[in-house]
């Protein structure tokens, strides 16, 4: 593994750099990627951000978003950039499977790989790693990388600060999750001092949805919410037909699972969505309940203890029944 002194030496001269993150990037994934991008271009590097897939429209206002390449739309250009890269930053993911068809390309590239991430059980594909499961967001670690590891705090300008604030805000649940420590608030204060307009960022991320998305939300809460009081669990299931009926696009189901968790007494919430290729499962939990264990053990996924995801090749109804069949195994944790 590279030491930070060696990485600093590599970055002392202009390099061809690719930054990538997990498929269907969320606020932390894209915020940390563009935050790092806006830092590295100030250092004179030739930098490209490549996302494996598209991402929510409410993140497309981020500084220098037009520079992001979407792999599924520009494969040849993306492949060329990955092959020619001298350094590849892998942000907010710890397994190459999380970047879909880009995984083998990154693995085969001769570039040095830098992982900056906060998920459990990272794979050994990287040459330098800044990793902590105690960080509330990868954007927090990118701040640490710039300000402390690279000692370039002076290069955290308004664009960098805006992106990193967005990443921390979204992955901390607007600063309400337990990982939002005093240190996180100090960082947020510094990002605001560097130009991040906190009120504007909140509005652009959380108050920027379509009318159809709001009607979809109403239907989901009125008609698709199922509460299982004997397990302190709530489930929202969405069919492919409903996604089409409400013209749902990438990002429109973001945060939906959290509504189920706001019900008094609920310890585990599940959002189960029928996508064209598979059924996706998002879990949220409170306290010590291991949502990530369920996703890893039963749904080929993983994540954090209180926020995890997985998928299945079964039908929507089969996945719902499977999820319910698992709950007795965890009943003691759920009702304690």
Give an account of the 3D structure.
- The radius of gyration is 20 Å and the shape is globular.
- It has helices at residues 4-10, 27-40, 75-84, 102-108, 138-149, 158-171, 182-193, 198-206, 211-223, 240-245, 256-261, 291-298, 316-326, 331-335, and strands spanning 16-21, 46-51, 69-70, 87-91, 112-117, 128-131, 225-228, 233-238, 268-274, 279-285, 302-303, 307-312.
- The chain has a 6-stranded parallel β-sheet, sandwiched between helices. Strands 7-8-9-10-12-11 form a 6-stranded mixed β-sheet.
- It is built from 14 helices and 12 strands.
- It folds into 2 domains: 4-206, Alpha-Beta Complex (inorganic pyrophosphatase (n-terminal core)); 211-335, Diaminopimelate Epimerase, Chain A, domain 1 (Roll).
- The protein has 336 residues and is α/β, with parallel strands linked by helices.
- 40% of the residues lie in helices and 18% in strands.
- The mean pLDDT is 97.
Spell out the key features of this protein:
14 helices, globular, alpha/beta, 6-stranded mixed β-sheet, Diaminopimelate Epimerase, Chain A, domain 1, inorganic pyrophosphatase (n-terminal core), 336 residues, 2 domains
Gist of the model:
Helix content is 40%, strand content 18%. With 336 residues, the chain is an alpha/beta fold.
